[in-house]
């Protein structure tokens, strides 16, 4: 069997309180969540505002967004900081904070378990909406956010992702 690269930091407890940056890709980078609109914001053009590209979700992109918010409602110890659905991937900062729950009996899920719940529920909803061949890529990328500077850089990266879509490593025509 081929040796696979380890995706997570060896010995680190991914259910502990921390901030995590995650990227989850659609299988084969298939663009199925909508398009980046580069024509502008749709605002009144007589107002001199910069015309920033933005993501226009289709039905499947809306499901991906809705199911991310579901995590926040489902798990009281999860805080969602930033999230964007792009045409073929999602980026997010999520926080695990066990101090938000008082019930010691509740098992805190790891980042992998949370992403697994997201992938499972979003896939099911997308299949039910008619995209029967939809699949997420195996695993996901994660980064443990260790300081305020890193948080700011990642937060800005997520929020401005549509502006860089044509140069993004995940860009597929």
UniProtKB/TrEMBL annotation:
Native source species: Flavobacterium bomense
Gene Ontology molecular functions: sequence-specific DNA binding; transposase activity
SUPFAM superfamilies, per the entry: Transposase IS200-like
Name of the protein this chain belongs to: Transposase IS200-like domain-containing protein
Residues of the Transposase IS200-like domain: 15-161
Gene3D superfamilies: Transposase IS200-like
GO biological process: DNA transposition
InterPro entries: RAYT_transposase (IPR052715), Transposase_17 (IPR002686), Transposase_17_sf (IPR036515)
